[in-house]
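re: ur question from yesterday

yeah so i grabbed the chain u mentioned. its 428 aa long if i counted rite. heres the sequnce exactly as i have it in my notes:
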Amino acid sequence: MRRVAVLAVPALVVLAAEPLYVLVDTAVVGHLGRAQLAGLAIGGSVMSFAVWLGTVLAYGTTGRAARRFGAGQRAEAVEEGVQASWLALAGGLVILLVLEAAAGPLTRALAGGAGDVASNAEGWLRIAALGAPGLMLGTAGNGWMRGVQDTRRPLYFVLAANGLSAALCPVLVYPAGLGLTGSAVANVAAQSVVGMLFVRALATERVPLRPRLEVIWRQVTLGRDLLLRGAAFQACFLSASAVAARFGEAALAAHQIAIQLFFFTALALDALAIAAQSLVGAALGGERVAEARDLARRVTVAGLVAGVAFAALVAAALLAVRPWFGADAQVYAEARHAWWFFVAMMPAAGVVFALDGVFLGAGDVRYLRNLTLVSALGGFLPGIWLAYLLDYGLRGVWAALTLFIALRLAGLLYRLSGEGWAVAGAVR
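ran it thru and got these C-alpha cells back, copy pasting raw so excuse formatting
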C-alpha cells in the first residue's frame, strides 16, 4: 500500500484543489444572495460539461500512458500526452464556441424560464467558458503525468493556479464590486494558468510535439466508451439540478451546496482511483497480472475505509452549512433533506470510485460504460423524474443519487470477482 499512498496523496491534493476552490467560490457567492447562488449552480452545472470532457480525456490518457510506462516505454508514454494535448486544445475551443452560442437557451432551460436566476447563470457562464481551452489542456497534462507516475509536478501546478484564483475571487466579487462576474473571472484565471503550466512541462520533455492523427484517432476511439459513460453522469447531474430548480430557489441553492460537497468528496476519494489506475495499468503493461489483482483487492479495502471516514465528516459538516455558505433558514431546511442520503452513500462511493480506477487502468472501459448506462437509465433518471412527478422535493433527488451509486457498486464487485478485466500487455 506504500506505492498507492505515494501516488494517492499528491493526487488527493490535486483532485481536491478544484472542488475546494469551487466550495470557496460557492461560499463567497452565497453571501451575495439566493438568486446569485442559484445562478452559480446553473452555470456551474453547464460548465461541468467541459470538466467532464477533460476528465474523460485524462482517464483515457492515463490508461494508455501507464501501460506503455509499465512496459519500459517512457518516451512513448509522454507522446501519448502530446497527442492528448492537441486533442484537448481542439476540444476546448469547440466547447468555448458552443457555450458562447448556447449560454442563454441552456441556462433558461435549466432554470425553468427567464428571470434573475437565468440571467445570473448566463452572465457567469459566458465569462467562465473562456477558461475551457486551459481546463482541457490541464486535464490532458494530468493524464499523461499520472501515467508515468509523476504526481509531484501536477501538485505544484494545480496548487499555484487555484491558490491564485481563490485569492482573486473574494477580492473581485466584493472590494472590486464585480459581484458574480468576479467569480467567473477568477475561474478563468485558474484554468488558463494551469493549462499553460502543463504545456510548458510537455515542451521540456524533448519529445516530438507535432500532431499525429493516427494516435489522436486511437485516443478518440478509446474515448468513445468513456464519453458515453461520462454522458450518463452528465445526464444525471444536469437532471438533478433541473429537478431541484423546479422545487424553488431555496431547494436549488441547497442542492448547490450539497452537490459541490459531493463533488469535493468524490474527487478526494478519486485519489485512490488515480493511484490504482496508474499502478494497475503499469502492472498489466509489464504482464504482472497477479500483482494487478492484488492491487485491486487492496484498493477496494482502502476505498471502503476512506468512504466510512468521509461519511463521518459529511455528517459533521451539516452544522457548518449555515455559517460557511450564508444559507438562510429555508435553504438550510432544504439541505437537511439531502444530507442523510449523502452520508449513507459515502462508504459505497469509496469502493465505487476506487474500483473505477482499477478498471480504467486495466482498459476495461466497455464494461464501465455499460454499467454506468444501465445504472443511469434504469435507476437514477427514472427515480429523479418520479421524485419530481410525486413532489418528493430534494429528498427524492438525493434518494435517486444514492440508488445510482448502489447499482454501480453491485456491478463493479461482480466484475472484480471474475477474470475478464485483467488483460496483460503494453496496449489493450
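noticed a couple things. Residues 233 and 271 are 19 Å apart (CA to CA). also The longest helix spans residues 74-111.
anyway ttyl
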